[in-house]
Amino acid sequence: MSSKRVKTNREKPLRGNKRTVRKKKKQPKRRMPLWLRNLLMLLVIFFFASAGYYFFIRPYRYVWRECRGEKAYEICMPCCYDVHGIDISHHQGDVDWRTLSDMRLESYPIEFIFIKATEGTDHLDRTYSYNFEKAKDNNFVRGAYHFFSSLTDPVLQAKHYIETVKLEKGDLPPVLDVEESKHASGVELQKKVKVWLDIIENHYGVKPIIYTSYKFKTRHLNDTIFDAYPYWIAHYYVDSVRYTGDWSFWQHTDKSTIPGIKEKVDMNVFNGTFEELIQLTLK
Fold first, then answer.
1. Can you tell me whether residue 255 is helix, strand or coil?
2. Residue 206 — very low, low, confident or very high, per pLDDT cuts 50/70/90?
């Protein structure tokens, strides 16, 4: 019996039910244009350079620029003032008073010295008593200042100053150093400052001097009740004081080098003649 072969289509074997997946072509990554990358880099450099200049160079550019006037004590002296002085505290360390007195420069002699006496209600500067006596022994016009604390009772602060500072004829009036306003509003701070000033004026019989910075004065003490007091304005790295009101002293630098003092010293000028400085002292 003859049998015909029936041709059948061969079925392709299944391969584990895996589906054939076509590979997608990878899209090329988009790169930032070179010009844009360079622009961003320049902007970043400009930002950090500007920030560095504003915070680290701008406040001190006066120190590094060329001095067009006369130099003394390793600083550029402000023009047209005849009476010069310094202020000191324990930060200056032990002062060699003999050297300080003997090494006075003929062109810019030091005539007056403010000395830190007290701070807050109980702090006494450890160098005050010695420095205050030595300033008198070496014929400097001397003054004593109190660093004001806005956090403590102004009555107790005034009492602390009175108990510590015994001013004599020829001494400068008491000085209130007010430069911080922690936890005190403008009005509250002004009231506390006025309390201290009134007590001190009543005790010593003379209006105290107010020491403060140019910015602090305009922001916190810009009231007519304080205009009657002599001002000692701190304003560094400028050619002249920008404060437009009356002022008696100007602290123009904290970078002076004074013979007999190891650390850098604040230097000041008096806004007047030596005779006018003497008129300001206690009678």
1. strand
2. very high
